[in-house]
Amino acid sequence: MAAYIQNISTVVPERSYDQSFLRDRMKEYISDKEITQRIIHRIYSKSGINKRHTVIPDFNTNGDPRFFFQEDGTLSVPSTGTRNELYTQKAKELFVETARQTIDENQSVDREHITHVITVSCTGFFAPEPGFEIIQQLGLSPSTQRFHLGFMGCFAAFPAMKMAKAFCESQPDANVLIVCLELCSIHLQPSEVTDNLISASVFADGAAGVIISKDKPTKTNSFELTQFATSIAQESEKDMAWTIGDTGFDMVLSTYVPDIIEANLDQSIQPLFTDYQLTADDINHWALHPGGRAILDKVQQSFGLSEEQISPSRKVLADYGNMSSATILFVLKELLSRPASKKQEAVLAMAFGPGLTIESGLLQKNQVS
């Protein structure tokens, strides 16, 4: 039985900063060593990012208390508890806002039709989990089934979509709402270690929601979820990992990650190609998680892709940075909004996360006349 992404909605915090502004603030606050400042300047300038959104209020002009960057030139290091308090406050608001927008923008599924809610996040925790908040605030049925995927990182939207597809296949009247939300910026670490500087240069805040059901939309463009595949790169778990420390979540994003991904690309997507007798030449669009500019470059080079084939990923990276699990849905939304050359186009979606795990999915974009 087919399952379709009916619509995709995205939400970001109102506050955003240019990447050049953040680069200069990091140089100002992190270190006065010339070598460190040169490294920061190069990392930020070569990131492929123009701006990022955040819930951190530090550079507002309206007098909000600062969280990290203090006015006296010092850099505070909030405890994990303090950071999670901010996450809980902001995430509850954004989870509900994103869910509301996703339902309101759908032309065929109303609130009373939602049967399942899947929430996704790896940047904080609270209980009852976000699905409870969505159901309560939006007045969904108390019998709505809810599930939460936590701490899976940038690829977590894929397990969520696979769950939704399974629900639709086993329950024909299922309408599954997925909301991915990440507030990565609350875990900034005042470190001169290159891996930490890279993490600080790419991660941002954002949320995305989708509704998946067995019904193919007739008035709007949609994606059919065809098949998924999962692969784990051997001996790479230390190159991309989250750990919970006393001062937030410590993100390890090794400089080797793009090379590890490149070395494991073929084996990760081959099951999809084999099952459907496809080759890379049969794929019209590559919806790649823009974990960083170097990752996009490696995938593009490996498969000889044109700039047009991955332009939605580069645009999302430039406009938003890396919002962990929500980012791939931003890419799919961008792709969905673009005109198609034919009624049906093959899309290969991919995301990379802790493990190092490579998740991929074969989708079909259906264009409405």
From TrEMBL:
State the InterPro entries in the record: Chalcone/stilbene_synt_C (IPR012328), Chalcone/stilbene_synt_N (IPR001099), Polyketide_synthase_type-III (IPR011141), Thiolase-like (IPR016039)
- Give a GO biological-process term: polyketide biosynthetic process
**A single Gene Ontology molecular function, please?**
acyltransferase activity, transferring groups other than amino-acyl groups
Q: List keywords of the entry alphabetically.
A: Transferase
User: Gene3D superfamilies in the record, alphabetically?
Assistant: 3.40.47.10
Q: Where is the Chalcone/stilbene synthase N-terminal domain?
A: 8-215
Active-site positions, per UniProt? Answer: C154 (acyl-thioester intermediate)
Segments forming domain Chalcone/stilbene synthase C-terminal: 230-364
Matching Pfam families, A to Z? Chal_sti_synt_C, Chal_sti_synt_N
PANTHER family of this UniProt entry?
A: HYDROXYMETHYLGLUTARYL-COA SYNTHASE (PTHR11877), TYPE III POLYKETIDE SYNTHASE A (PTHR11877:SF46)
The similarity comment for this entry is: Belongs to the thiolase-like superfamily. Chalcone/stilbene synthases family.
Q: What is the name of this protein?
A: Type III polyketide synthase
